[in-house]
Amino acid sequence: MPRDFYRQGTLTVARSLLDCILVHDSPEGLLAGRITETEAYTHDDPACHAFRGQTARNATMFGPPGHAYIYFTYGMHHCFNAVTAPEGRGEAVLIRALEPLAGLELMQRRRGPAAAALSLSSDSEAARIRLGRALCGGPGKLCQAFGLNRALNGTDLTEQGRLWIAAAPDGPPDAAAIVATPRIGIAQGVELPWRFYRRDEPYISRK
DNA sequence: ATCTCGATAGTCT
DNA sequence: GACTATCGAGATC
How many other C-beta atoms can be found within 10 angstroms of the C-beta atom of residue A176? Predict the structure, then answer.
């Protein structure tokens, strides 16, 4: 997606990223997934890392839009965001889940024995969904599956280099097809309905 | 299906 | 020294 896509306003970007394709041309292989669940974080939102000002950790959030903000949390997980606000402002969209499309075998290896034990041949629709959610059904899971870490923090997502986001093949979902709910795992700003996914989307982190 | 809890280390007060 | 934009295991219903 071009730079201007990320300048539409964080809430709009969060909805418009649904169905877009995240691609990682990693040294071990090409990985791709359809974005199925997002959350918006704005500068005046107490749950946003940028709310209390710029620090070394959140610096890329204050940089130009269209770049990756990847941080480490809970001592063992990474989270991947797309920076949205104009420079100096500190806003981003958290990618919470994907439907894996390419590189599933590599994702299984990265996700560990439990995920690797699941059948890769899509015996049934239910089995495919189970596998997809085990691989990329959560912000920490998808980072592990894709091999995303702080080394990729700040990557420009608008050019096809190592990590980028491609347009939704059939365009973004209709507004009427998108559900908005409170965000997951936060202590402040719990009332804001800034988590988005398609109605009837099976590839989400949780209900 | 839903819950409670522990792991684990970087960040900020 | 407290907190964390999480995950998975184990208990419970």
Answer: 6
Q: What is the pLDDT of residues A30-78, one digit of tens each?
A: 999 999 999 999 999 999 999 999 999 999 999 999 999 999 999 999 9
Q: What is the pLDDT of residues A162-178, one digit of tens each?
A: 999 999 999 999 999 99
Domains of chain A: 3-194 (3.10.300.10)
CA A80 to chain centre: 5
CA of A193 to C1' of B12 (A): 27
CA of A95 to C1' of C5 (A): 10
pTM, two decimal places: 0.97
CB-CB contact of A98 with A38 (8 Å): no
Rounded distance between C-alpha atoms, residue A79 and residue A96, angstroms: 8
The answer to whether some atom of strand C lies closer than 7 Å to the beta carbon of A81 is yes
Kindly state the DSSP code that residue A156 receives in the 8-state scheme. B
